């Protein structure tokens, strides 16, 4: 699967590079784009009585004129509704001239019953909010409930951010070209695209060597090579040791969920560090997970010094007391030789928001542990309010900025989880299902991530793998899922992604 994601600007670059390399010129690419859309319309909506093609003034509209001509040639009754003539001499103008159907003004468009609408108003060139005749046409389309096939993107959806600018139709199907854009995977755009088809229009993958995209759909190919596998002579500590900090006696469940998840993700040993008051309750619920009493930052530091774990989960159920904040701050600045990686989740993120400058200063100290931060949108808003307030930033941009600010890997959670590394790489997760929106699910994600980090997986890859495994487990289980189910769902998925020969 081609998992690179291109911004609209990068897609423009792909277009230019492909035209320069040949064999297709701009008109050739447009003809192939239109042909891919027409084929999809005929395949899925071949029974439609008519097709209404909405054409904008740019190249997206140009694709629309190609679709109109091809559907007309295939015997489909076609009506073309134009928002304005394409610029003279443009490829779109050539496509319009080649189209045998005379366009009518878009302001007159009313979807006919049993017709399919092809939305070719705007694609990558969307530069401002939809208004006037375009917005009115989309509104009429939505009211009529006609099926919509979007060319490149539903018009009004920003390809860069997935945000709706003004208005956008809810497409049944979107046909995009060469590679997906962020707007196909980030909400609300993702929901408006319907099924997305990526069509090959003759742009060679070689253009990617020049463009060097830094954003990917989160698929196993992105991290599979770095996925840990135990060697034949491995032992439990060699497979990675994870520490998990437990909260007090009434809030221990979150840490146990993380601990179980870390173990299922392959860590050879997991220790729960529990305050004395919570030892009994933790002991009553743990079997393979080890338990160690640690009441103070000093006792935690002593354990780290003794055991030197590969990763620590800090935050789930931990509490918001000031001394917890002090302890977390000391962990952020600890020697990376004593503690390889920290996953800051849940309450740790609230402490981070309260003492941001101190944490950021600790993160900048050389030789401190690598970090993964796992905010949901509410936590993100607390820690990075200035990024949330900036309307110009997409979810992808926000995760990247947060990663750059903290020098860590950020998993910005949600239905369209974005993983961003401090080096600018980013991935958008697309395999999660809403069954994961259940209490404790995030604690499991933090634990999976720590389990992979402790086994030596680099943070960006570990974070991507964790989000994918978590999404896969939730989607496969479906309705009725609770967080306790998730760790136990991992083994068959791990087996599938491992290189073990069949049957072993
Ligand atoms: N990049 C590529 O490789 C290819 C692109 N193709 C098509 O070309 C499209 C991009 O074409 P363009 O760059 O011409 O962009 P668009 O056709 O998306 O829109 C550009 C025009 O619309 C105007 N505009 C933008 N937003 C508006 C709004 N809200 N209200 C009114 N006017 C608005 C712009 O000022 C410009 O005149 C792609 O989405 C795709 O459909 C295909 O032809 C095949 C190849
Ligand atoms: N609608 C959704 N679709 C897919 N995944 C979701 C959805 N809502 C939440 N999730 C995922 O579920 C997890 C919830 O984590 P979080 O909000 O921290 O929960 P908790 O704090 O209860 O553990 C995250 O991984 C998030 O990405
Ligand atoms: K469109």
TrEMBL record:
(6S)-NADPHX binds at residues 59-63, 123-129, 152, 254, 317, 376, 443. Pfam families: Carb_kinase, YjeF_N. PROSITE patterns: YJEF_C_3, YJEF_N. Its EC number is 4.2.1.136, 5.1.99.6. AMP binds at residues 413-417, 442. InterPro entries: CARKD, Nnr, Ribokinase-like, YjeF_N_dom, YjeF_N_dom_sf. Residues 219-497 form the YjeF C-terminal domain. Its cofactor is K(+); Mg(2+). Keywords: ATP-binding, Isomerase, Lyase, Metal-binding, Multifunctional enzyme, NAD, NADP, Nucleotide-binding, Potassium. Residues 11-209 form the YjeF N-terminal domain. K(+) binds at residues 60, 119, 155. It catalyses: (6S)-NADPHX + ADP = AMP + phosphate + NADPH + H(+); (6S)-NADHX + ADP = AMP + phosphate + NADH + H(+); (6R)-NADHX = (6S)-NADHX; (6R)-NADPHX = (6S)-NADPHX. Belongs to the NnrE/AIBP family. Bifunctional enzyme that catalyzes the epimerization of the S- and R-forms of NAD(P)HX and the dehydration of the S-form of NAD(P)HX at the expense of ADP, which is converted to AMP. This allows the repair of both epimers of NAD(P)HX, a damaged form of NAD(P)H that is a result of enzymatic or heat-dependent hydration. Catalyzes the epimerization of the S- and R-forms of NAD(P)HX, a damaged form of NAD(P)H that is a result of enzymatic or heat-dependent hydration. This is a prerequisite for the S-specific NAD(P)H-hydrate dehydratase to allow the repair of both epimers of NAD(P)HX. Homotetramer. This is Bifunctional NAD(P)H-hydrate repair enzyme. It comes from Mesorhizobium marinum.
């Amino acid at each position: 699967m081609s998992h690179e994601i291109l911004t609209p600007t990068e897609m423009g670059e792909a277009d230019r590079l492909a035209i320069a390399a040949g064999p297709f010129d701009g008109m050739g690419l447009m003809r192939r784009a239109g042909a891919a859309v027409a084929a999809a319309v005929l395949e899925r909506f071949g029974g439609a009585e008519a097709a209404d093609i909405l054409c904008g003034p740019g190249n997206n509209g140009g694709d629309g004129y190609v679709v109109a001509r091809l559907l007309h040639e295939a015997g489909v009754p076609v009506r073309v509704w134009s928002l304005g003539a394409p610029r003279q001499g443009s490829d779109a103008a050539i496509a319009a001239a080649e189209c045998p159907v005379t366009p009518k003004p878009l302001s007159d468009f009313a979807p006919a019953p049993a017709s399919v609408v092809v939305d070719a108003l705007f694609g990558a060139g969307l530069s401002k909010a939809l208004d006037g005749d375009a917005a009115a046409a989309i509104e009429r389309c939505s009211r009529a409930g006609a099926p919509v096939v979007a060319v490149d993107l539903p018009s009004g959806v920003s390809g860069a951010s997935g945000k709706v600018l003004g208005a956008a139709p809810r497409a049944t199907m979107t046909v995009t070209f060469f590679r997906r854009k962020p707007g196909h995977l980030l909400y609300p755009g993702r929901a408006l695209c319907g099924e997305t088809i990526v069509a090959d229009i003759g742009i060679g993958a070689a253009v990617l060597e020049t463009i060097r995209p830094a954003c990917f759909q989160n698929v196993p190919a992105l991290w599979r090579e770095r996925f840990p596998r135990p060697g034949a002579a491995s032992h439990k500590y060699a497979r990675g040791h994870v520490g998990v900090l437990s909260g007090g006696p009434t809030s221990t469940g979150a840490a146990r969920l993380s601990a179980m998840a870390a173990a299922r993700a392959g860590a050879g040993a997991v220790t729960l560090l529990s305050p004395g008051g919570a030892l009994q309750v933790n002991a009553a619920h743990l079997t393979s997970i080890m338990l160690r009493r640690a009441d103070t930052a000093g006792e935690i530091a002593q354990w780290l010094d003794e055991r030197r774990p590969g990763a620590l989960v800090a935050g789930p159920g931990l509490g918001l007391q000031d001394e917890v904040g002090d302890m977390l701050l000391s962990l952020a600045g600890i020697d990376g030789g004593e503690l390889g990686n920290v996953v800051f989740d849940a309450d740790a993120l609230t402490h981070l928001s309260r003492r941001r400058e101190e944490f950021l200063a600790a993160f900048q100290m050389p030789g401190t542990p690598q970090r993964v931060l796992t905010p949901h949108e509410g936590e993100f808003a607390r820690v990075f309010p200035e990024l949330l307030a900036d309307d110009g930033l997409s979810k992808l941009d926000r995760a990247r900025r947060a990663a750059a600010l903290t020098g860590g890997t950020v998993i910005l959670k949600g239905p369209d989880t974005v993983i961003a590394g401090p080096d600018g790489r980013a991935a958008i997760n697309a395999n999660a299902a809403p069954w994961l929106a259940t209490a404790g699910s995030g604690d499991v994600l933090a634990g999976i991530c720590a389990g992979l980090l402790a086994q030596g997986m680099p943070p960006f890859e570990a974070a991507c793998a964790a989000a994918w495994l978590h999404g896969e487990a939730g989607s496969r289980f479906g309705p009725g899922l609770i967080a306790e189910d998730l760790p136990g769902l991992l083994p068959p998925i791990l087996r599938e992604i491992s290189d073990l020969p069949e049957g072993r």
